[in-house]
UniProtKB/TrEMBL annotation:
It comes from Candidatus Electrothrix aestuarii. The keyword Ribonucleoprotein does not apply. It catalyses: ATP + protein L-histidine = ADP + protein N-phospho-L-histidine. This is Sensory/regulatory protein RpfC. GO terms for molecular function: ATP binding; phosphorelay sensor kinase activity.
Length: 1277
């Protein structure tokens, strides 16, 4: 029988039963495919309908968004433009003046610009009673009352009103109206309008809409007015196209032209995607949007159309392709099924058993489901029967006929899972016939671990219950395991995130049950150890009575959040663990499933108790600030930008004296500012805003009654992240009282300065009267020292000369003390020898100590350096004062001066000076008055010893100025010791060359040098030329600065001696020009001037001059400075050589002076001789030149006063002063100095008084000159 079935199969003749099975299976397959096709067609049709609805809704929303954005943008532009126009002062001025022509002229330019940039077509000015004052776009029409809704809304609200309105010509216009205020009073209305057509014109360039139709209800317009409007707008339309509406704009394409006419009795555009495939082949979307005016009345329709034919054709082609693919797949599937059936038939014929056929089907199902099957018969051995998927699902190649064993399988199982797998398997082997299921990891072919689900069952047991057959399948669950791992990780991340939040966080499900909380929330509700999860607030309120109110409040708040369906913010009060109420800001976000069902509620609560308390505290602070401002009279203001709206505090109103009903504004504030200060105040504020700096302005306010207030205004401006100003805040302080006090202080200061000037003038006069005899003493003693004297005579005269110079120094100290009081005392820092200071000290006080029979000791420690840097004159003055006092108050015994080294660095030493005596000493009470002005120990000492009490005060001031300190130690009738400590710089042996090299060595070094002498006075020229040329110096003369520049351009020089005041070009200008040339940067330039004030020295230095020599100049000073500036490096070796080798002393021959020279009235011949190197012949020549050059001074001065050069008189007086000093005419020099100073005052406030003083001083100078000329004429015969 089996052989016959195989034969029939091979010959194509199948058994009848097999053929019937094949036919039945094929019919079922075909019916199933037909059914699937119908389901597919229905699904496709339903899907298309859903897609159409979605596409239409998306398109409709897009159109609506574009239209709304354009309308909103246009309204915002109109509002912004109205605000700008409202602030235009010119428009406001012409409108208030009711000057229609000027207003039209100004507005016409604005209207053109607004039309070009913002498509403005309507521009109105209305009076407060809403009567039109001017139509800028139609100036011939005015005077009619406007009753449109926009102006009524603006009048009602007092703010900008805007919206769509239908005009009498049927045009739809977007209008905006704003009230116009001036000084807080309504003066009228401004109105702008823009045609709706210009707003929706944007749809022409949009791909969203292919055309639109703008219509208006017929009952709202008249046909005649509509026709006129269409003509004005150059549009053509048919009044009868529709029965209930009239077309205003039609941009529909030609293929949609039929939409522009009525299609039936009830013509309505249906908002949907329309399909008219046959016969019109139309596929488009249409959206009919009603148009509402500002009052909410529907006035028309805006119909949008979008052609979808291209999308339809594309979708049709895609569907056709998809159907073809499905048909092809169906055919292939039929062929595939036919092949499977054919194969199955052959297997059935070959096996002859239905069970074998089922096994093949099961194998196919396992293959499709990707299940690895295993079949283990433990009693038959370790072999396991599997299918190919058993291996391929793990990446192994199929085993084929090679047997697979259970041992191999156990080697693949993960070691961590092996024992659990064996235990579960043994449990089933022991008698459990239920389904075996476990999950574990298996090593794949690549070495990775693959998760599998092992499902099996004991299929057959033996008589003794032993397992004979154990079968099951393996399922790859790696992806599921990875997904579970990821879900678990996400859950843990969510928990971690919530726990790290500082705020209280809750998660409730859609039914309000608590699912998740963080630690902050649990601590807040005190539920750390309470079973809260899965319960709602109602259950918790019943279980936790102490928290009932909080839970019930949560229920109400949650319901509100579910109802709003978006983020909901609420404020809830919770009783804290300490019994205090805490305020929380609670944010609740409801989540929903796609079908609208509640999904979850996310709650975040942040405690704001401190913020609430801070708000209350802030309110109190604001009240306190307002009270403080009221007490202090300080007003404050705030101005928002760019609308310039202002807010004033009550004190601001009080300062400005405005009633609080006045609306604050910038213009109102400027009305109170003084007219002369308005521009400054406005510019200061504008500059501060632009520069992003705080501003401060002190200005005046002009009150209504004419009073003037002074105010100090300060403020700052806040900016956003882009640098745009947001608002300004500031304060205004009334400083009128302070200004009045300042005026009084200024008057008092002027009186004090006048008193100070009077004191200075007194000191100057006193100094002048004392200096005259002192100069005679010093000069005569100096002349006597230059004659041949005996040793004793020379000693006496030298001491007298030094004492006179010291007395002159004390006189200078009196003036210096005045400078100390004024803070103008300066110290001179030069190199000096300490032993020279003590030598001079000994010469001054040695004779006095000998006369009193006192021993005088001077002890300088060996480690004290001799060459120092400081002010030796001030140091000597301190020592002289202290030693004189010691000698004065000591009748027997000794006076000791000592110097010790306290500290030393590389550049500085600290010296301790002490002056000790064995005199009368002082009590503690007497020591308290030391170092005070005009104070001595007591009145008895003043009567007995004399003195002014100024010396110790000056010593104290000088020591402190030099960075030291001074004090005294004394015992009554035992003596006193005065100490002072001074820091001094360590000097260099070669730093001050004029103190290291003698005049002969200096002159030797200067021989052969080339010097340019720039001097306009011939006498000074001759004196300087003789002094220089006699020493072998080559001299070139120049009369002014301009001539000097020309000579410097042609010749080279080693030094330039430059007078300061010269005609054509002065010395300052000439030196500045010299320094501009780099090749003259190192050329020494020395100033020669009779002005030796500190200010003149600073001016010389600023002009680039290297040194400064006063007139009349001395040869020692001149040559020393020239050598120092020209050859400092060559003089130091010479100085060192002089220290090593003592040259023989060169004695000067006695000067033989004609006696008649010293008998000249008005001329100090000794001083003149000294200025001419003690050469009588040179002195005579200088006197002759003086008589010749200055003989015409009076005429030259008068001509200079009448001339055009205002500096000429000053220059002539200055020249006379210098020459007089050179020849020794001291009194004439002083008179010429006064005349020069008066000439400098010309052009000042006291011009009349100065003119009279100049004339009087000029007469004194001429008188003195005439007397001197008479003497010179008598002398020269």
């Amino acid at each position: 029988m089996r052989t016959k079935e195989i034969h029939n199969t091979l010959t194509g003749r199948l058994p009848q039963g097999v053929y019937a099975i094949k036919k039945g299976i094929f019919c079922y397959i075909l019916a199933g495919m037909v059914l699937l096709g119908l389901v597919y067609l229905i699904s496709v049709f339903w899907m298309y309908r859903q897609q159409d609805e979605v596409r239409f809704q998306e398109w409709k929303q897009t159109v609506e968004d574009v239209y709304s954005n354009r309308i909103n943008e246009a309204e915002n532009n109109l509002r912004a433009l109205l605000m700008v126009l409202r602030e235009n002062p010119a428009l406001q001025q012409y409108f208030l003046a009711r000057d229609r022509d000027l207003l039209l002229e100004t507005s016409h330019n604005l209207e053109r610009k607004l039309s070009q940039e913002y498509h403005i077509t309507h521009f109105y000015y209305h009076l407060p009673n809403r009567v039109n004052f001017l139509r800028v776009h139609q100036p011939q029409r005015y005077g009619d009352r406007i009753e449109r809704s926009t102006i009524q809304e603006a009048s009602k609200t007092g703010d900008v009103a805007s919206g769509l309105e239908l005009g009498p010509l049927g045009t739809l216009t977007l209008r905006a109206v704003i009230p116009w205020y001036a000084g807080g009073k309504l003066i009228g209305y401004l109105e702008l309008g823009r045609e709706l057509a210009s707003v929706v014109s944007a749809f022409r360039q949009s791909d969203t809409v292919d055309g639109y139709l703008l219509t208006v209800k017929k009952q709202l317009v008249e046909r005649k007015g509509w026709a006129l409007g269409m003509a004005m707008l150059n549009r053509s339309a048919d009044w009868s196209a529709f029965s209930d509406r009239v077309i205003m704009i039609n941009t529909l394409p030609e293929r949609f032209a039929y939409l522009g006419r009525e299609q039936g009795e009830d013509h309505r555009f249906q908002n949907f995607l329309h399909r008219f495939i046959f016969p019109e082949n139309m596929f488009y979307m249409i959206y009919d949007r009603p148009l509402l005016d500002i009052s909410g009345r529907q006035v028309g329709h805006l119909v949008f159309v979008h052609d979808e034919l291209k999308e339809l054709l594309l979708a049709r082609r895609m569907n056709n392709c998809f159907l073809l693919i499905l048909l092809g797949l169906a055919v292939l599937l039929l062929v595939f099924y036919y092949h499977v059936l054919r194969k199955t038939e052959l297997q059935l014929v070959e096996s002859g058993a239905v069970l074998e056929e089922s096994r093949q089907q099961l194998a196919l199902a396992l293959e499709v489901a990707d299940l690895g099957i295993w079949d283990w018969r433990p009693l038959d051995g370790d072999a396991v029967y599997t299918n190919d998927i058993f291996f391929t699902m793990l990446g192994y190649p199929p085993q084929g006929d090679v047997p697979f064993t259970m041992k191999q399988w156990m080697d693949w199982v993960h070691p961590a899972d092996l024992q659990e797998v064996i235990a579960i398997r043994e449990l089933f082997f022991d008698g459990d016939d239920n389904c075996y299921c476990t999950e574990y990891r298996v090593r794949s072919f690549g070495g990775q671990w693959t998760w599998i689900r092992d499902v099996g069952r004991v299929v057959r047991r033996g008589l003794q219950g032993e397992v004979e057959r154990f079968m099951g399948v393996h399922i790859d669950i790696t992806q599921r395991k990875e997904a579970e791992t990821q879900r678990q990780a996400n859950y843990e991340n969510l928990i971690t995130f919530m726990e790290t939040l500082p705020d209280a966080a809750f998660l409730k499900d859609g039914e309000g049950r608590w699912q998740l909380t963080n630690r902050t929330a649990r601590e807040l509700f005190q539920i750390e150890d309470y079973p809260w999860q899965g319960k709602n607030d109602l259950e918790l309120a019943e279980e936790r009575l102490g928290w009932r109110r909080s839970h019930l409040s949560c229920i109400t708040s949650d319901q509100e959040a579910w109802q709003v369906k978006e983020m909901f913010i609420d404020y809830e009060e919770v009783l804290g663990a300490d019994g205090q109420e805490q305020v929380f800001e609670v944010r609740k976000m409801p989540l929903f499933f796609p079908d609208g069902q509640r999904k979850a509620l996310v709650i975040i609560g942040r405690e704001i108790t401190a913020e609430r308390l801070a708000e209350k505290k802030l309110k109190k602070s604001e009240q306190f600030l307002a009270q403080t401002q009221q007490i202090a009279g300080l007003g404050s203001w705030r101005q928002t930008l760019p609308d310039n709206a202002q807010e004033w505090s009550p004190e601001m109103y009080a300062i400005l004296e405005f009633d609080e009903t006045v609306k604050p504004s910038w213009h109102t504030f400027l009305e109170r500012v003084h007219p002369d200060d308005r521009q400054m105040v406005s510019a200061t504020y504008t500059d501060a805003v632009l520069s992003r700096e705080p501003f401060c302005s002190e200005h005046r306010l002009l009150m209504e009654d004419g009073r003037i207030k002074y105010v100090l205004e300060r403020g700052e401006t806040e900016y956003d992240d882009t640098g745009k100003p947001l608002q300004s805040i500031g304060s205004v302080l009334d400083i009128t009282a302070r200004k009045e006090i300042e005026q009084e202080l200024i008057g008092a200061q002027q009186h004090a300065e006048a008193a100070s000037q009077a004191k200075s003038k007194f000191l100057a006069n006193m100094s002048h009267e004392l200096r005259t005899p002192m100069n005679a003493i010093i000069g005569m003693s100096k002349l006597a020292l230059e004659t041949e004297l005996s040793t004793e005579q020379r000693n006496y005269i030298a001491k007298a000369h030094h004492s006179a110079e010291q007395l002159l120094g004390i006189l200078n100290d009196i003036l210096d003390f005045s400078k100390i009081e004024a803070g103008k005392m300066g110290l001179e820092i030069i190199h000096y020898h300490l032993h020279a200071v003590f030598d001079n000290l000994y010469n001054l006080i040695g004779l006095k100590s000998e006369e009193k029979g006192l021993l005088l000791h001077i002890d300088v420690a060996d480690n004290v350096p001799d060459i120092l840097q400081g002010d030796p004159l001030r140091l000597g003055q301190i020592l002289v004062n202290l030693v004189n006092n010691a000698i004065k108050f000591t009748d027997k015994g000794s006076v000791s001066i000592s110097v010790e080294l306290l500290d030393r660095t590389e550049e500085q030493v600290v010296l301790h000076f002490s002056v000790t005596d064995t005199g009368i000493g002082m009590t503690l009470e007497q020591q308290k008055g030391l170092f005070q002005l005009f104070s001595q120990a007591d009145n008895s000492i003043t009567r007995k010893y004399g003195g002014t009490g100024l010396g110790l005060s000056i010593c104290k001031r000088l020591v402190e100025m030099m960075g030291g300190k001074i004090w005294a130690e004394s015992a009554y009738e035992q003596g006193s010791c005065f100490h002072f400590i001074l820091p001094q710089q360590i000097g260099s042996p070669y730093a001050e060359i004029e103190k290291q090299a003698d005049l002969a060595e200096i002159i030797r070094l200067l021989q052969g040098t080339r010097v340019l002498l720039v001097e306009d006075n011939q006498i000074n020229q001759e004196v300087a030329q003789l002094m220089l040329s006699r020493q072998g110096i080559d001299v070139t003369l120049a009369d002014n600065g301009e001539e000097a520049l020309a000579i410097l351009g042609q010749q080279e020089f080693d030094c330039v001696l430059m007078d300061i005041q010269m005609p054509v070009m002065d010395g300052y200008t000439a030196c500045a020009e010299i320094r501009k040339d780099p090749k003259f940067s190192e050329l020494p330039v020395i100033a020669l001037t009779a002005n030796v004030m500190a200010g003149d020295r600073e001016k010389s230095k600023a002009a680039g001059m290297d040194g400064h020599i006063g007139k009349p100049f001395r040869e020692e000073e001149m040559f020393a400075m020239m050598a120092r500036l020209m050859h400092p490096e060559s003089l130091m070796p010479a100085a060192k050589k002089k220290q090593a080798v003592q040259e023989p002393e060169v004695k000067k021959a006695p000067i033989k002076e004609p006696v008649s020279l010293f008998g000249l009235t008005g001329i100090e011949a000794g001083k003149g001789m000294k200025n001419t190197m003690n050469d009588p012949e040179i002195y005579r020549q200088v006197l002759q030149l003086f008589r010749k050059d200055q003989g015409s001074f009076a005429q030259q001065f008068q001509d200079a006063q009448a001339g055009e050069d205002p500096a000429a008189p000053t220059r002539l007086a200055h020249t006379l002063k210098g020459i007089a000093g050179t020849v020794g005419a001291t009194r004439l020099q002083e008179e010429a100095l006064q005349l020069e100073m008066l000439c400098r005052e010309e052009g000042q406030v006291q011009e009349r008084a100065s003119e009279e003083q100049r004339k009087e001083q000029f007469r004194k100078v001429v008188k003195e000159l005439d007397a001197i000329f008479a003497e010179l004429d008598r002398f020269f015969g």
